[in-house]
Design brief:
Distance between the termini: 34 Å
Oligomer: single chain
Number of strands: 9
Number of helices: 9
Shape: globular
Structural class: alpha+beta
Helix content: 25-40%
Strand content: 15-25%
Largest sheet: 5 strands, antiparallel
Order of helices and strands: HEEHEEHHHHHEEHEEEH
Radius of gyration: 21 Å
């Protein structure tokens, strides 16, 4: 056998061998997606265009709009209507004042619905007008199959998104340095006229998953468990969305999706 014949045989073997495929993640969530955050490309999706309820992951878009509007160290006065929401809340009282920056920490770490109402009304004059801005801004980001009715994610039948859309919204938010800083913060000292309260980030992946840098949990009985997560390792960053899953699922599903993202760099 000549060396040319030998090389030709090796080449034929390589061509005949199937390329190693990356095993797809098995997730419980009804809607899911994993994205390369830097490239903005989707690596894998499940029911990505199915309309589902986002619960408190809605607050990602709320925070994005508030940060983009700026003037974050100006004071906001709480009014009575802001406080008329279901828990969770920070028990804001009419007449209290906080900076928008402080309120953003309460929004994303405590997931405070009264904070969301305060920020929305301050930004747009009313919750209804803010919700219109939310839907418009989402569409500008390519999230065209989403519709928002409030800034906090409390259930409304016309308040919905998709795993694909929520990933696009979340990627845009993560491009804002302050947003990134807030969602990776494990705790924040909330100072109110009634004393200091430590706010703990609800995202367990911040301590469970190496490199996790956010982003937001959510739950309502209609939405079930929701989590948008992101992790950064060795110059690679991936973003995962799980919608309508069970309590173990938000952690297990999200871990599988992020692992899938990092494994994809090997192929």
């Amino acid at each position: 056998m000549t060396w040319k014949t030998w090389l030709a045989g090796i080449a034929l073997m390589l061509l005949a061998s199937p390329a190693r495929a990356l095993e797809e993640p098995m997730v419980a969530a009804d809607g899911a997606a994993v994205m390369d955050s830097f490239a903005g490309t989707f690596l894998w999706e499940k029911n990505a265009d199915k309309r589902l309820f986002p619960a408190s992951s809605t607050k990602i878009l709320t925070a994005l709009l508030i940060i983009e509007a700026g003037h974050l160290d100006e004071k906001v006065i709480v009014n009575l209507d802001d406080t008329k929401v279901e828990p969770s809340s920070l028990d804001l009282k009419p007449g209290e004042t906080y900076t928008r920056r402080e309120l953003l920490y309460g929004l994303m770490l405590k997931s405070a619905n009264d904070v969301a109402m305060t920020l929305a009304r301050d930004n747009a004059g009313s919750v209804a007008q803010f919700a219109e801005k939310m839907t418009q801004r989402a569409a500008e980001l390519g999230a065209t199959d989403s519709h928002f009715m409030n800034p906090n994610g409390l259930h409304h039948p016309q308040h919905f998104t998709t795993a694909h859309d929520l990933a696009l919204i979340s990627r845009a938010a993560m491009q804002l340095p302050l947003f990134r800083e807030i969602v990776r913060t494990p705790s924040f000292d909330w100072n109110s006229p009634r004393g200091m309260v430590p706010l703990r980030n609800h995202n367990r992946l911040l301590v469970r998953y190496p490199g996790c840098i956010g982003i937001k949990t959510g739950y309502t009985s209609q939405a079930q468990q929701v989590l948008v997560s992101s992790a950064l390792r060795n110059g690679r960053e991936y973003l995962a969305v799980v919608l309508h899953t069970n309590h173990p699922g938000i952690w297990d599903d999200s871990t599988k999706l992020l692992d899938y993202g990092f494994s994809s760099t090997q192929f």
